[in-house]
Design a protein that fits this description.
Length: about 350
């Protein structure tokens, strides 16, 4: 795929996510999505297979929206891609650069590969023991918090932990300055739990302080907004896009809690440069901690045991034991087998 020399050039296209469902015009271009030489080389491996590069700009229950240099199409993950994914977060998500096979008719295109991610914002899925990808290939994460009655430093700490493990840069955006009793004190409290992290006090509704955030919008940078419901993420998105791209709602009067307005993760291109990813509001944020492999897993011995003559082989004195044979050949350390035997004895 050739990238246009004018990397700020944009294309407006009319799209339909599902047959009969008319959706709004969206501005898309791969060049503006920070398409790099490294990605160009990586996607070249797929070019011989008739695949086309693009970036995921929308994720829905049944399909993805993929932007290319010319259009935006609906696509599904291929069966092969699903089979090789060890976690749900390995599958495509908003922000991913992918290689897809164009549709051969009226059906959806098929995503066959996900290019290497430069960063990945991953949380623990709500109510499930699995990782959930919020966004990928982002440069900066705006942690948006309210200075109203929903001001919560403990939640901020969890968001900071989430971002620090992602490979992206955290920036704290404290919104609703007009509702704060003491912005100086709020800034001090935030700085105590987030030393060294940039803090910006703004008022999204009236545009107060937004000019301080402009330097983060490098033409090829992607910024993702995270935060709880009602902190003003959608209001910010609409201001930066110059249109009502996202619906907004007021917070509940009795507890200042937001109502879920954004339900899907979406990526937008700013007319003035840079990409923005909006995410649904998060209330109960849990950090995903992958289960670490321990010495008790013994996957190497289990693989060898598949070749033993007897399925219930204890790798002790049975004939035709593939595990003891591996020890004899020097492919498996005797101490490793002894550790396996002790672990098995302890379990029994």
């Amino acid at each position: 795929m050739l990238i246009d020399d004018d990397e700020r050039q944009i294309y407006e296209i009319e799209r339909r996510a599902k047959p009969g469902e008319h959706l709004r015009t969206r501005i898309v271009t791969v060049a503006a999505f920070r398409w790099t030489e490294r990605q160009q080389k990586e996607v070249a491996e797929y070019s011989g297979q008739g695949l086309v590069p693009g970036r995921i700009v929308g994720e829905h229950r049944t399909h993805y929206q993929v932007a290319t240099g010319e259009s935006e199409i609906s696509a599904e993950a291929s069966g092969a891609l699903r089979n090789v994914a060890t976690e749900r977060s390995d599958l495509p998500g908003v922000g991913d650069f992918v290689a897809f096979r164009p549709a051969a008719g009226d059906g959806p295109a098929t995503i066959e590969g996900v290019l290497t991610r430069t960063s990945a914002l991953i949380r623990k899925a709500s109510g499930e023991q699995r990782p959930q990808l919020l966004a990928s290939n982002v440069d900066v994460v705006f942690i948006v918090m309210g200075l109203d009655g929903d001001f919560n430093l403990a939640r901020l700490k969890r968001f900071l932990e989430l971002v620090h493990g992602s490979g992206a840069i955290p920036v704290i955006v404290a919104n609703k300055a007009d509702l704060s009793r003491d912005t100086a004190e709020a800034t001090k409290q935030i700085a105590e739990v987030a030393p060294g992290v940039p803090i910006h006090i703004i008022g999204a509704r009236d545009g107060i302080g937004l000019e301080e955030l402009e330097p983060y919008f490098h033409p090829h940078h992607t910024i993702v907004l995270v935060g709880s419901s009602g902190v003003g993420k959608s209001t910010l998105i609409n201001r930066w896009l110059g249109r009502d791209a996202q619906a907004t709602q007021t917070v509940r009067a009795h507890d200042n809690r937001g109502r879920h307005t954004t339900t899907d993760r979406q990526l937008f291109i700013r007319p003035d440069g840079g990409s923005i990813i909006d995410t649904p509001g998060v209330r109960g944020l849990e950090i995903w901690e992958p289960v670490k492999k321990t010495e008790d897993s013994f996957e190497d011995i289990d693989a060898l045991a598949a070749n033993c003559k007897f399925r219930n082989c204890k790798h002790d004195s049975e004939p035709a034991c593939a595990v003891r044979a591996a020890v004899k050949r020097g492919e498996l350390e005797a101490d490793r087998l002894a550790s396996f035997a002790r672990s098995r004895h302890a379990r029994n």
